[in-house]
Amino acid sequence: MIVLGLESSCDETGVALYDTERGLIAQQLHSQIDLHAAYGGVVPELASRDHVRRMPALIRQTVAEAGVPMSAIDAVAYTAGPGLAGALLIAAGTGQALAAALGIPALPIHHLEGHLLSPLLADEPPSFPFVALLVSGGHTQLMRVDGVGRYALLGESVDDAAGEAFDKTAKLMGLDYPGGPVLARLADQGTAGRVKLPRPMLHSGDLNFSFSGLKTAVMTQLRNGSHAPADMAAEFQAAVVDVLVAKSLAALKQTGLSRLVVAGGVGANQSLRERLNEAVTRRRQRVYYPEPALCTDNGAMIAFAGALRLAEGQRGSETHVVSVRPRW
Ligand code: KG4
Ligand code: ZN
């Protein structure tokens, strides 16, 4: 079975073909970073317009790369939420239209489920059950995952997501857009501990997070002190990583599971990976990541989630109504 995956929830247009026999057979990705850079953040209207412009060509390129005719596609999976409403509508509209034209099912996929299952695309995938740490620009969650569609929320951020905190702090520090990766690179040149920042909710006794206070703490330090930007970045990254690592270990302990899966854009952070690798190895547990290219938004994870959903018996709607769920 071949599934076409479409992603347009934010500032990435992603298209991919997943073959249940051969794996990922083709994928194309267009990033809108340059388009939004001048504004210091994603401009929703510009994002939607660019998705409309790019999506048809990306689909043609993906199908050509795979060397299969359109008629070989068995189903379409598209991100239906959460995300920017106008942006989501592009993958949803395109997906439903293609499905109607080809007479195949179209499956709405939850964007976070795409991230969550993407480590299963790796060469050595984890088996169920596992704990998942989902760290993206919009969400920070710890979940217990028992199988496809069998997710239990263990804890989440009560305010900003980890990626959002990286982005907002980078902006405060006057760093280039997109802030998260730029701040992380600067952190590698500094020393944590020279500036002191809090570790929010480290000892809260639950698996929830809070990151908005960190950004405020950075703002106060910037006003009052004269710290090297690299040291500030290093301390900020260390504060976020300390909390993410401690709560992930606590989630493993609480559930009694030994496998941790990390997904979402912040999962690309090197310091987080090093600290997690070290901590779980010491405990004879294991941590799994998606390939670096699949950490941030892409069509491959949506095609893959669609294939797994179909294998579980989910059927797409026959009516091809185009609807999205921005706050899903
Ligand atoms: O999963 P993703 O691509 O999009 C969402 O679904 O939100 O995640 C994007 C987020 C952004 O906030 C970005 O700053 C953050 O991931 N990010 C990073 C790194 N690379 C991306 N944060 C910290 N360190 C990185 N290396
Ligand atoms: Zn995402």
From TrEMBL:
Pfam families: TsaD
Record's subcellular location: Cytoplasm
Domain Gcp-like residues, every copy: 24-304
UniProt keywords, alphabetically: Acyltransferase, Cytoplasm, Iron, Metal-binding, Transferase, tRNA processing
GO-annotated cellular components: cytoplasm
Principal EC category: transferase
Cofactor: Fe(2+)
Enzyme Commission number: 2.3.1.234
GO molecular function: iron ion binding; tRNA N(6)-L-threonylcarbamoyladenine synthase activity
Family of the protein in this entry: Belongs to the KAE1 / TsaD family.
UniProt cross-references to PANTHER family, sorted A to Z: TRNA N6-ADENOSINE THREONYLCARBAMOYLTRANSFERASE (PTHR11735), TRNA N6-ADENOSINE THREONYLCARBAMOYLTRANSFERASE, MITOCHONDRIAL (PTHR11735:SF6)
Record-given protein name: tRNA N6-adenosine threonylcarbamoyltransferase
Native species: Denitromonas halophila
Record lineage: Bacteria, Pseudomonadati, Pseudomonadota, Betaproteobacteria, Rhodocyclales
